[in-house]
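Kindly inspect what follows.
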Amino acid sequence: MSFPSDLEIARSITPRPIAEIAHELGYRDDEIELYGSTKAKITLEGIRRLEAERPRGRYVLVTAISPTPLGEGKSTTTVGLAQGLERIGKRAAVALRQPSLGPVFGIKGGAAGGGYSQVIPMEDFNLHLTGDVHAIGAAHNLAAAFIDNHVHHGNALGIDANSILWPRVLDISDRALRDVVVGLGGRDNGYPRQGSFVITVASEVMAILALASDLRDLRTRLGRIVLATRKDGTPITAEDLHVAGSMAVLLKDALKPNLLQTLEAGPAWVHCGPFANIAHGNNSILADRAALATSDILVTEAGFGADMGAEKFFDIKCRASGLTCDAAVIVATIRALKMHGGVGRIVAGKPLDPALLESNPDAVRAGGVNLAKQIENVMSYGVPVVVAINVFPTDTEEEIAAVHEVAMAAGARDAVVARHFTDGGAGAEDLARAVWAAAEEGAPDFHLLYPDDMPLRDKIETIALRIYGADGVDYLPAAAKSLKLYEDMGFGHLPVCIAKTQYSLSHDAKLLGRPTGFRLPIREVRLSAGAGFVTPIAGDMRTMPGLNSRPGGERIDLDDDGNIVGLF
């Protein structure tokens, strides 16, 4: 008998009324805004009340090795670990990002976890949920419309039409929109200029929503967005264009975190969804605060490998929130370590390379240099590490032992086999015990990688050398010019959010394992003054993905009864 699909498993469970779960967490009726019986938003007033009444729970981050195109099961491990913690008697919560429709209909499919470690309702989680992403897109594009409208009606602010920094957004992968010309068709249609689209999850508005602490902070951050410059290089903000207030109105409800549940009826917070390769890759601070006020322990995730989402979790999210991480979990799969060790290839949508199904402990050890580096990366913040070995049926005891050997030699507290995909929380109890022990010890020496007052170039180089292992950084002239401009504008104190490939510690997806002897090329640098960071773009990284030759949307449909099919 074949293993059921994620969608079949999700539909086999009858969810509890979400109001019951919210009440058990301590929220009152007037602090719960229902979206049907299985989803709710929680008010900011409710979050603040419980924060004042209760101690903060333990804060655990789930990250990973440099992933393959198939992913290493990080979201699944995050959910499974929370379910495992519940089974060993802890009040646990999970916090995840909401998926972008780009990957859902593209190469990746859903992101609600998998197997018997999922967040439900799975279809709503992966699609529109409560409409937050659409609100972000509307707010972002409203600002874009205001820019062109202002220039069309006389340009009183003196916007340099060749220095507009604000793209448009769409939450669908569409490479044809990466570079566009707008305003064609004559005077009544505006003025012609070159523009671009990025995917909505790469919008600065998404990052702002994820980092805002309350409505006032949201409104202030929106007002600080730099949309364009004048010919003398001085910034023009959303406040200057009088659009920030309307943007805030569109985002008022989207700011409230969404409460769902796991397959085992534990609380699951789903809010915001920035990618970690082109944005900061973490769910919202408000969702984490809501969970920390109502649980013994929160398990949250950061996108892709520890060089990506975890670095940004610490240096951007924790810097903004003031919260301290107590422990981290690094997810590793044996198939990925073999690939990093030079064996086989993994191509999404194609059968697994037979070489990856053969027992090969030596390849695991060779690829283990990537795991060792990611352990080193997390520990450089003073955070203890537990490795979760996300096993598959073809993995052998010798290969599992090799992962344990590599992890312990690199300084991990433990390396634990986890079978949460097939067994749910029961398959993660050993992992839960190891993580709880690490979180109880905490991170008394937690620290950020660099101070606010370090120059932007030095921040970029600190990450490149210490986290990626580069020999140095090379800047194209446009990037160097932007860095000087942003520092002259007074933004040199901001952290940096490097955009690069997720598949390698370097900027080059082909450099697997633990590459050395490379220099990080920065081709351009973008300013996110409202979110509060600067984004250097390394190599050929794109902020609008394209669809693959057989996008996942080809298999998604409705059956005769109106049920969604083909959503993995």
